[in-house]
Design a protein that fits this description.
Number of helices: 2
Number of strands: 0
Order of helices and strands: HH
Number of domains: 1
Structural class: mainly alpha
Distance between the termini: 32 Å
Strand content: under 5%
């Protein structure tokens, strides 16, 4: 049987994906607190996070056809 050259990377990506999913769920729950925050619209960490998410979604759409 041939050893798959990308098996290790796929397994690592799957593991990271699971951890990422858990962290995103926690962030989604925590971000609800932002609704009450007086600096919500100018909050740099929140804006940076939103930009990162936008970049990731764009990359998935463009490079993975999702």
């Amino acid at each position: 049987m041939l050893d798959c050259p990308i098996k290790k990377d796929l397994e690592e990506a799957t593991e990271l994906g699971g951890a990422f999913s858990k962290k995103m769920k926690k962030v989604r729950e925590e971000i609800e607190q932002c609704e009450k925050c007086p600096i919500k619209k100018t909050c740099k960490p929140r804006m940076d996070f939103n930009l990162m998410v936008d970049r990731v979604v764009k990359e998935l759409n463009e490079e993975w056809g999702m």
